[in-house]
Structures are given as C-alpha cells and as structure tokens.
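Write out the 3D structure for:
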Amino acid sequence: MMSTTGPSDSELYYWLRLSVEPSLGPAHARTLLSHFGLPPDIYSQPVGMLSKVLPSNLAAQLKASASPDVETHIQQALEWASVTPNHIITLADPDYPQALLESHDPPLLIYAKGNKQLLNVPSLAIVGARSATQVGNENAHAFAKHLTELGWSIVSGLASGIDAAAHAGSLEAQNPNASTIAVLGTGLDIIYPARNRDLAHRIAQHGILISEFPLGTRALPYHFPQRNRIVAGLATGVLVVEAALKSGSLITAKQALELDREVFAIPGSIHSPLARGCHQLIRQGAKLVESAEHIQEEIAHKQPRLSHYALPVRPHTATPRTPALAREQQHILDVMGFEPISPEAIQQRTSMDLATLATHLLELELAGNIALSQSGHYQRINADHT
C-alpha cells in the first residue's frame, strides 16, 4: 500500500496528471509548482493566472478535463500503486530521495517497487559496459557485495554486464539495512533487457526498482541518458568498472561530476577497448581504484560504517605473448578483432570444428588473451601478438 505519509489518492491524481500532461515539460511543471504550490492548487487556478506562467494553449489545457489517454494512465497508475510493494513517490513526499532533490532536474514523481526506505540510505553507483569481460563482471560483483555489507546501497541501471553483476553482488550481501537500487529506462511494468527479469524480481523482493517513466513506457534510446542522471543523482559516488569511449557509463560519470559527486574508475589493459573509457576518466580527474580501500579513503566520512576494508581487484593485466603460441590460436586472435564476438562467429571465420575451437578458446582464456562475458561473447584483452 502507499505510504500513509504520502499524498491521498485525490492529490496523487493531480501529481500524475501533471507528470503526463501533453506538451507540458518538467521545466513548466516546476514553474507551476513554484508559483502555485501543490498540483491540486495548480489545477484550481483560473486560466488567467495559469496564462501568466504558461502559453495560453497549455493554460487552457490544464483547465479542461484530462484527455482519455491521460485519464486511463492515471487510473491504471493509482490501481498499480494500491498493490504491495508498489509506490508512487512525489517531490512532496517525505520518502522522496533527498540526494536526488539536490540534482538539477529531479523527476516530479518516481514509480517504485520494493523497499522505499532504501532510497535514503547512503548509496554508491556501479556502472559499466554491457558486453563486459568476465573479470569486469567479477570486480563489479565483488565491490558491490562488500560495499553493501558495509552499509552502502548500490545503484545501477539493470543493464546487462556490469550493471547486472553489481545488482547481483549487492543482493548476495543480504544486508537488512542496505541493498540495491535499479533505475529503469522503461515503465516498471516492462523489464528491459528481458533476460534480467528474474534479477528484477529479486531486486523488488530485497531491494527496490524505480523509474520516472509512466507505466507502459517501452525502451527508447533517449530514455537511458535520462535514467543515468537519476543513477548519478542518487549516489554519493560513481564507480566505473569497464567502459568503452562514448559509452553511457561516461555520460553517468559526467553527470555525477556536474553534481559534485565523486567518480572512481578501475584501470585496465591499455589494449582493451573496455578500459579506454576508464582511462579517459582517470586522465580527466577520476580517482583510480585498485581496491575498495581507495573508495573508503575518499568517502568514508560520508558513511561511518565504512572503516577498515580493502578489496583487491582482479587486474585486467596484459599477459605477455610467447612465441610458442599455437598458429591456430594466433589465427583465432587475428580474426576476433577487439569487439565482443560469439563462438559461432569465430567458428565461421576460422572454419574450425567446434571441439577444436573450444579447446583453443579455453587455452587463450586461461592465458589471459581473451575473456568471456556473461552474454557468452569473447573479447580480446591483449593486443601484443608479436
């Protein structure tokens, strides 16, 4: 059920309408709130008063009845919020995350499923590549688990790769006072990517899922930079585990810097494309992280429960190549390139039988030349083939 300290259904009706009013953007909505108070007060204003802060067509729209589409959304959202553990948290709600209020563009309201108390627990964001290496996923999982055990909630975006590994690591910590917060780029009734449906169910049970997008909102490319600003806004600091150049993780890091949040990055092999984003961040002033102790040193004063913990990172070291590398293995590396690639694609390029290819891939992985991601794709992590 909705919090008894939150808005009544009648007040929430107007919050919902304001959030989905056609052609009324967040800036206009905040202007209305600052001039007239809560949404019921806004909708009770005469057209003349509304026209002082809105174009006349929008002022008239607010005085008319809600359109059928808007009315349908409002009723569906109210019904959804009446079911445990669903919540709709508005800017005026005491459960609204205080850290997000400090951001430049806090959403008018948040749809939430799970333990809403976690929204005001000190948190750290862990983000990174979707096509992460096995080492990257293990680092994200380990950092998230141990930081949660020490009282931090872990924020991420429910994407494949680093995000999913961080959420899973935080859940494994089983801390009753901290857990994981997944920020979706869709409505909460649509899980994207679908492969993370089971993970999302676990987060709803033991952490919390949140979104600013109305129910029924599907995944669109421009939603994810919007989602990333909430990830950055909720967190005391952001740890980037693996990231290519021009990735969404770098957008999150940039937004965190604009909010005066700490940004951390794990270094990797100079030959790995998934390390280049992290290296760029470090060159631009992000803190280089080799253990959780480095994070502790920077922000322990913001969370007293972080005390004497150091978590070693499995490094993305470039294993020197030896002249003894089999010709077939060299051929595999040559055809792979540096993008994630499936075993089927490697087989097509090499024409090897699957048994022989599997043996070579295992040997290359053990030697540190390639890594296997959770998506089942391989990626080179060492470009030294001479």
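The chain has a mean pLDDT of 87.
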